[in-house]
Structures are given as C-alpha cells and as structure tokens.
UniProtKB/TrEMBL annotation:
<dbReference type="GO" id="GO:0005794">
    <property type="term" value="C:Golgi apparatus"/>
</dbReference>
<keyword id="KW-0328">Glycosyltransferase</keyword>
<keyword id="KW-0808">Transferase</keyword>
<feature type="signal peptide">
    <location>
        <begin position="1"/>
        <end position="30"/>
    </location>
</feature>
<keyword id="KW-1133">Transmembrane helix</keyword>
<dbReference type="InterPro" id="IPR050748">
    <property type="entry name" value="Glycosyltrans_8_dom-fam"/>
</dbReference>
<dbReference type="Pfam" id="PF01501">
    <property type="entry name" value="Glyco_transf_8"/>
</dbReference>
<keyword id="KW-0735">Signal-anchor</keyword>
<dbReference type="GO" id="GO:0090406">
    <property type="term" value="C:pollen tube"/>
</dbReference>
<dbReference type="GO" id="GO:0016757">
    <property type="term" value="F:glycosyltransferase activity"/>
</dbReference>
<keyword id="KW-0325">Glycoprotein</keyword>
<keyword id="KW-0732">Signal</keyword>
<keyword id="KW-0472">Membrane</keyword>
<comment type="similarity">
    <text>Belongs to the glycosyltransferase 8 family.</text>
</comment>
<protein>
    <recommendedName>
        <fullName>Hexosyltransferase</fullName>
        <ecNumber>2.4.1.-</ecNumber>
    </recommendedName>
</protein>
<dbReference type="InterPro" id="IPR029044">
    <property type="entry name" value="Nucleotide-diphossugar_trans"/>
</dbReference>
<keyword id="KW-0812">Transmembrane</keyword>
Length: 350
C-alpha cells in the first residue's frame, strides 16, 4: 500500500495514519514478537521485530527472489533497523528477500544485532575494506559524506556474490511504504542503473566553476540529457556494472577531484558524471527524498504532493536524532512507527 502526500494535511494526521497502518499489519500478520537481550555494549538495544507471512505462495522456488543491499554502521543502525522492518512489513513475500549488508566495523556485533532483531531474516554481512578508498576521498561540505562507507555502493558489484545479477541499493535513512517488488520489477532495458531522476533540478550546481570552465570537463555530458538522481535508492544491474567496469569509471572522476576540485559533495557527483542522462527513470514515488533538510542545517521540509512508496531522510537531519531531541519535524512522525529502538527509559518502565 502506497501513501499519498499532501502538504495541506496536518502533521498529526500523517503520524496517525502511519501508526494505524503499522498496528493493523503487525496485529494481523505477525507471528512472533518479543524483547531480546542487548547484543553488544557498543550498540543500541532493539525490540525483536515481528515475523511477517504476507502471502500463501511465498517461499517457493517459483517465486522471484529480491536482493537488497544496504550499508551497516553503528551510528546509523537504528535507521537500518527501521528500514528493514518497513520493507518486510509491506512486502508481499518477505520470505523471498535477501539482504546484503556492507560494514566497515566488527561483523560479529553487528551480526548479533541484526539476528536478534530479525531472527527470520535472510542476510549476510560483508566487510567493506576502507583501504579501497584510502587517498581517494576528497573533503566535502559535510563530514558524514566523507566516511569511507559512504563510498561502498561504488564497489557493491564486486562485494556481493557473483551470481547476483540485480540488486536494489538503499540508504539507511529510508522507510518503504509499498511492496518493494514493484521497484524490483522495473524494466531496466539496457541501462545499468534505474532510479527516479529529476530533470527540473539545477544540475549545474553539483559541480564547481572549475569544472564548467574547463573545456574538456564540460564536454562530459555532450550527447546526454543529464538529470539529477539520488544514489540512495537505486536498482543496479550488477552484471552490466561489472562488465562495463563502472567502478573504475567512478574512481577516475574521484582521482580528478583530488587534483582539481570539481564538486563539493561526497560520492554523488562522480556517479552523476558517469551515469547522469543514461539511467532508467523510475517513478518519483520511489524516492521522496530531502526529508532530512539541507546538508548544513537540516531544516524541516514538507512532503511533495503525490503518491509515495519510499520516504528518504537524505540531508543532515535524521528522524531518530530529531525525535530524541524532542525537536522533530512533521515528517519524522512517519518514521517513528518503524523504530525498533528500545531506550533505557522503556526498559525501566517494563
């Protein structure tokens, strides 16, 4: 079930609709709910998620298998847990989902956290070697964008199993309110990446004057109609990515950036340089992005009108941080029903 946004609706109604949706689905479909012991002293405690059985024909070999990749970091794990719960809750066949988590930290503690929260989840954790981007990252406008794990999506095709031909990559600051199989089923034609693209955005702002004033650089987009797309939600044909050596193509632009500053953001601009104007466009409902506000102050933003299948808190402000500070934005109440975090206050009350 997809949501429909309207900037004229009061924030309380948004939150109420999400809570009712979660309550209805959980009470009717969940078969096991509980509280688990804290897996690591360095990680938050999470409630055990319900196990969803949403379709009678699920789990059979005849059903399509959907592969989802995400990064896994201690600082964002609360968002990851909420994202996974939302995907499972709204999937027709959650049993047919496989998750691939890329992590730069201790796999044991993170594995315990995921397994204890989602006992029935089909997942694997892969170590992302930060040395792959050592010396390749240039300082951007925000420290969080400079973390090595933010670049892991560039190497995704080389990390996940070679027999996986297609994967959905998702950031940790999202919730899905629709069946992710609809995104999986997109006809990619001959494209390497499918994602919502935004051709009305000011594309030139993603690159510096040094880029546009260089005759060789400015020729990069000749023959293409480059449009902005957000790399936090992508369907990737990883077979084509491997064969086309797209990892190397992105790295080449990162090397240029080290010598001559041609953009200000982190891993997004080199993706745009390689792929903008040559991706499969997906309905905008699959990335209602920018809910975290801008990259500097993270100011509140409203939803765009229209149907919504995925909410994305891209930008500086994260819903769990704003909720904890008791200074949430209206849209943060749409994230809260998926929050599995068990605070120390909750523990005392129980």
């Amino acid at each position: 079930m997809a949501l429909r946004s309207s900037s004229s609706l009061p924030p309380l109604l948004f939150g109420l609709l999400s809570i009712l949706l979660l309550y209805h689905t959980t009470t009717s479909l969940a078969i096991r709910v509980g509280i688990v012991i804290k897996p690591s002293p360095n990680l938050p405690v999470f409630r055990e998620a319900p196990a969803f059985r949403n379709g009678d024909e699920c789990g059979s070999e005849d059903q399509k298998h959907i592969h989802v990749a995400m990064t896994l970091d201690a600082n964002y794990i609360r968002g990851t847990m909420a994202a996974v719960l939302s995907i499972l809750q709204h999937s027709t066949c959650p049993e047919n989902l496989s998750f691939y988590f890329l992590s730069a930290h201790s796999e044991a503690n993170l594995f315990s956290a995921i397994k204890s929260t989602f006992p029935y989840l089909n997942f694997k954790i892969y170590r992302f070697d930060s040395n792959l981007v050592h010396g390749k990252i240039s300082k951007s406008i925000r420290h969080a964008l400079d973390q090595p794990l933010n670049y892991a999506r560039i190497y995704l095709a080389d990390i996940i199993p070679s027999n996986v031909g297609r994967v959905i990559y998702l950031d940790s600051d999202i919730v899905v309110v629709d069946d992710i199989a609809k995104l999986w089923d997109v006809d990619m034609e001959d494209k390497v990446v499918a994602a919502p693209e935004y051709c009305h955005a000011n594309f030139t702002q993603y690159f510096t004057d040094a880029f546009w004033s260089d005759q060789e650089f400015s020729k990069t987009f000749h023959g293409r109609n480059p449009c902005y797309f957000n790399t936090g939600v992508m369907v990737m044909d990883v077979d084509k990515w491997r064969k086309g050596e797209y990892t190397q193509k992105v790295e080449e632009w990162m090397a240029v950036q080290k010598n001559k500053r041609i953009y200000h953001l982190g891993s997004l601009p080199p993706f745009l340089l390689v792929l903008a104007g040559n991706i499969k466009a997906v309905d905008h409902r699959w990335n209602q992005h920018g809910l975290g506000g801008d990259n500097f102050k993270g100011k509140c933003r409203n939803l765009h009108p229209g149907p919504i299948s995925l909410l994305h808190w891209s930008g500086k402000g994260k819903p769990w941080l704003r909720l904890d500070s008791r200074k949430p934005c209206n849209v943060d109440h749409l994230w809260k029903p998926y929050d599995l975090y068990r605070s120390s206050k909750q523990s005392l009350e129980e």
